[in-house]
Amino acid sequence: MAQVKRLLLLLLCVCSTARLVQSKVHFYSWEISYQFKSPDCYKKLAVTINGETPGPTILAQQGDTIVVEVKNNLLTENVAIHWHGIRQIGTPWFDGTEGVTQCPIVPGDNFIYTFVVDRPGTYLYHAHYGMQRSAGLYGLIQVAVPDGFVEPFAYDDDRSIILNDWWHNSTYELATGLSSIPFVWVGEPQSLLINGRGKFNCPAAQPTSSCNATNPECSPFVLTVVPGKTYRLRIASVTSLSALNFEIEGHNLTVVEADGHYVKPFVVKNLNIYSGETYSVIFTANQDPSRNYWLAVNVVSRKPGTPTGTGILNYFPNHPNRPPPTTAPPASPPWNDTEYRFKQSVDARAHPNYVLPPPPTSDRTIILLNTQNMVDGHMKWSLNNVSFNLPHTPYLIAVKENLRHVFDQRPAPETYDYRNYDIYAKPKNPNATTGTPIYRLGFNTTVDVILQNAKMPGNSSSETHPWHLHGHDFWVLAHGHGKFDPERDPKRYNLVDPIMKNTVALHPFGWTALRFRADNPGVWLFHCHIEAHFSMGMGVVFAEGVDRVGKLPTSIMGCGESKNFLGSP
Amino acid sequence: MAQVKRLLLLLLCVCSTARLVQSKVHFYSWEISYQFKSPDCYKKLAVTINGETPGPTILAQQGDTIVVEVKNNLLTENVAIHWHGIRQIGTPWFDGTEGVTQCPIVPGDNFIYTFVVDRPGTYLYHAHYGMQRSAGLYGLIQVAVPDGFVEPFAYDDDRSIILNDWWHNSTYELATGLSSIPFVWVGEPQSLLINGRGKFNCPAAQPTSSCNATNPECSPFVLTVVPGKTYRLRIASVTSLSALNFEIEGHNLTVVEADGHYVKPFVVKNLNIYSGETYSVIFTANQDPSRNYWLAVNVVSRKPGTPTGTGILNYFPNHPNRPPPTTAPPASPPWNDTEYRFKQSVDARAHPNYVLPPPPTSDRTIILLNTQNMVDGHMKWSLNNVSFNLPHTPYLIAVKENLRHVFDQRPAPETYDYRNYDIYAKPKNPNATTGTPIYRLGFNTTVDVILQNAKMPGNSSSETHPWHLHGHDFWVLAHGHGKFDPERDPKRYNLVDPIMKNTVALHPFGWTALRFRADNPGVWLFHCHIEAHFSMGMGVVFAEGVDRVGKLPTSIMGCGESKNFLGSP
C-alpha cells in the first residue's frame, strides 16, 4: 500500500513536470450563441457552445493542457466559463468565475482559457456569470489516468451522463423574480434532463408551435450496453436547483469515484447526487437481456414538482426505443427521507489505497450559519448574517493590486452566536446585511469550515445546500444532525479516511465539517451550487497567498477598476 | 475617476460660461434594470430606467447641458444609450452607439453621458445596442427655446406622446430568429403602445397569470384637454418595426415641427410617422365637449397584424375613461396607400421664416441601393450589396487611433449599377457580402445621399425604411418614384425650402435624396431605424474630421483593441 502511494506521488510529480515532455495540449474553439433548442420537446432559447447544449465533453489525460478559445457571439450578453473541479494551480485567473477571478467576456471578444488538468477524474464546466448556467452552457471534463496507471476498479467501457433541471422561462425571468420586491419564484423546473434530453408533457392548451413531442432533439437518451459487460458510468449534475436521485432499473451501482477521488466502493440501489457533484459508478449488464430498462432521475430533498426524467438502458441488440420498458420508471425513495441521503454522505470514504490523510489539526475554524433573510425588502441567503455581493472589480485583481476600496476590508464574520441561536426556530435575523467582505487565509495553513444549516423563515423546512469550493479539494470530516458543537463534535471527525471532494451536501437541520489546505495562491469562491441561492447571496470568498500569484493576464481585466491596469506599457 | 475629473472640468467650463448664456446643467441618475411590466396587460420582462418604461422625459432649454449617469444593473447584459437627434457637437464619443462611438456599458459599470442640447425641439433617447431598444429602454427629450424667443405658432399647453410597438417574445428571441438559418420571423407585434400603454386582448386560452386586463399599468393613456384651448402635441415614434398613422378622432392636426425643425404649417386629418421621427402638431379642443374622443395609432405600409392602439382625448371635466367613446376608433387610410404617405413626405417644407438654405451643390453623391439578400444562408439587408457588420472595436476609436486592421479599409461602395439594375424585379444579388467598410467624408464637404428602394426577394413588395443619420440634420431634397436618375432627377431637387430632418422615409419602390454638411468631427452611423433591419445589416458609417476630435474619454473604451488605450499613464 505504501508502495502504491509512493507510485502515485511519483506519478503526480512526473506529470506536473512532464508537461513539457509528455503531456498533450488540447485546443478547443467554442462559439457561444443563443439558439432555439427543444431539449424537452419545448422550444426555447438556450445558450449553446458551437450550437449545442450540453457542450462537447473535454477528454484529456492527467497533466494535459486544455486551451479553450471562447468567442462570445451572444448579442448583448457577456459570458464566463468555470472549470468546475479543476484546481487551476498556477492559473488562478482562469477559474472563470466572473467577479472573483475575471471580468465578463463581452460580445465579440475572444477569451482564451489555458489550464492543466492535474488530476484524473470526472469534472464539469459551466457558465459562471449571473444565472447563465441555467440557460444551457455546461458540459463534462473527463481526465484519464496516465498511461500504465491501473485504477482500483475494472470495467469494459466508460460512459457518462450529465443531469440538469430545465425551465421554460428564461434565466432573465428567473433572476428578475429572485431580486424583485416582493420575491417572485419561477416555480419548479418543467423537466429533468439526461445528457440534455427530457420530455415535457405538452398540455393540450399549449401552443404546438413551441412544443413538439416528436422533435428528435428530445428523444430519450439511450445508454446501450452489451449483455454481461461491466461499465463505468460517470454521472454529473449541474442542476440549478434540484437534488436528484439516479437509478438504473434493476441494476445496482457500485460507487467508485466522487469529484475525482477514488472512494471505498459501496453499493447502492440508487445514487443521490447534488448540483456540482460528479460520481463514477460501476454496473454490470447482468439482467434479462431480452428487454430494456429505465434510467430514472427524480427530485429529492424538495417536494417534487417535476416529473421523473427518464432515459433508456438498452441491451444490445434490442431496439433502443421500441418498445419502451413496460415497467414503471423507478421512483426515488421518499423525497423528504433526509436520513437516506445523509447515510450516503456518511458512507462515502476514501479508497483505502488512495487515502490522502488530512492534517490532524487545523489552524482556523470558520463556522458559517446558513440562513434565509430579508434585507431591504429583498429575500436573501446569508452566511453569519452577511449576504454575499460580487464587487464590480474582480476580487483576484482587487486583492493582488491592493485596491482596498473595491470591497469591504473588514474581515468576514468568523462564526455566529451558536450558543444562543436556535436552528429549529424561525430565524429572527434582525441585522442581516449584504456585503463584500472576504476571508484572508494564511498561506499553507489548514482551515476548517463548518457549514451549519437552519430553519427557513417561510416554512418549517430546511433545505439541502450543495457547497462547492473553487481551487481546492477538501476533506469531508463529518456530517452531523442538529447544531454543531465546537467542543464536542470535532472529536467525531473522521481523520482516518475522509473522502475528498469539491462539492458537499449540507443536509437539512444538519451540519457538515470540512478541512482544506490554503495552498493554492489565488482568490477562490465557496458557494452553494444552487444557482438561485448563490444569486441571492449564498457564498463567501477565500484569498490565500495572493502575493505569490504571478502577473495577472490583461485578458481578465476591463471592468471596474481593472480598466486602469490595461493599456500599452 | 478620470471620467469624474472630466465631468468636473466640463461642469466648471459650463458654469463659468453660464453667466453669459444662462445655460443650465441637468443631472440624471438612471439605473437600468429588468423589471416585469405589463404595458399592454401582458406581463413580460422589460428593460427599464429607474423601474419605468418609457423612461423619464428629459426637459431642458436650448444650450443646456445634460448629464446622465447610467448605472447598468442588468444581470449579464450590457447597454448603451443613444440621444437621437442630438448632434453631439464636440462630444462625438457620447452619441451612445455601441460599436460606432463606444464600447457597451457592462453590468455594474457607471457611465456618464454629458452633452449639450444645442437646438430646441423634440428628440428621443433609446438603447442602441443589439435589439435592446425593443426591450423598452426609450424616452423623450424636449428642448425649449431660449427665454424670449417666440416660436412661429401659438398654443396654450404642451403635451407629448411616444409611440411604440411591442412583442411578447423577448428581444433575444426576436434577434436569434433573425440570425437563424433558416430565418425565423417573430411575427407582427402584439400591441401598439401610446406612452407605454396598450391593450392586448388576452385570449381565453392564455394563462391569466401573465395577462391581466385590469392591471392599471395598461389603462389607456389619457390626454386631458380644456374645451377651447389649443395644444402643442409632440409625437415621437420609437417602433422597432411599424410605420404608424396617428389620428385624434374629430380633430385636425397642424404639423409645425419635425425632428426639431419648424415646418411650413400643413393640416392633416392624421399623421404618418416612422420610427425615429418626431413631430409637433397643433390642435384645438373645439369639438363637442360633452364626450371624449379616441387617440388612435394604426400600422401602415406593412399589412397590419396588430390591432389599433388607442388612448383617450378627455374633454375636461368628463371622466377620463367612463364611458369610453361609443364611436369606433379611427382606422388609418389603407395600409398600402403609399401615395398617401408619399404626399405627406412631399408636403413637409421648411417654415418660410426658418429656412436654412442648403448648399446649392454637393461635393459627392453616394447612391445606396437597399436590398434584401441571402449571405451565407443568412437573410440580410444590404446597401450596394454590402451588409453592414459592426466591428468589435468601435469605429470612432479605430479611426481616430488609426487601427487599420479593425475594419475593412477599402472604401464602401459609392453606388450600384443603376443603369442595369431593375428595382421592380426580384433581386439576383449574386455577390452580396457582409462587411465593415465605411465612407470617409472630406471635412466640411457637402454630401448627397440617394436612398434607392427596390423589390424584396420573398414577395412582390418593397418596404418603407426610415433612415436615421447620427450627428447631423440633413436637407430632404426630394422624394421620387421608381429608379433615381442621376442625370435627370437632381434637377427636381428642392433647394429653396427643403425640410431638415434626422430621419426620413424611403418609400416603397421609390427614392429619397438628402444632403448634409460633413461638418461634425466624428464617426456617425446612418441606418434604417427598423430594429430588425439594422440588425440584419441595413446601415453605413460616415467618418469626417476625425483628426479634429479631441482626446477620447477612456470611459468609451474597454472592448476589442480599445483595451490597449486604457490604463494609468
From TrEMBL, chains A, B:
Residues 34-144, 159-315, 419-545 form the Plastocyanin-like domain. It comes from the Eukaryota. Dimer. One of its GO terms (molecular function) is L-ascorbate oxidase activity. One of its GO terms (cellular component) is extracellular region. Its main location: secreted. This is L-ascorbate oxidase. Residues 1-23 form the signal peptide. It is an enzyme of class 1 (oxidoreductase). Its cofactor is Cu cation. Keywords: Copper, Disulfide bond, Metal-binding, Oxidoreductase, Repeat, Secreted, Signal. It catalyses: 4 L-ascorbate + O2 = 4 monodehydro-L-ascorbate radical + 2 H2O. Its EC number is 1.10.3.3. NCBIfam families: ascorbase.
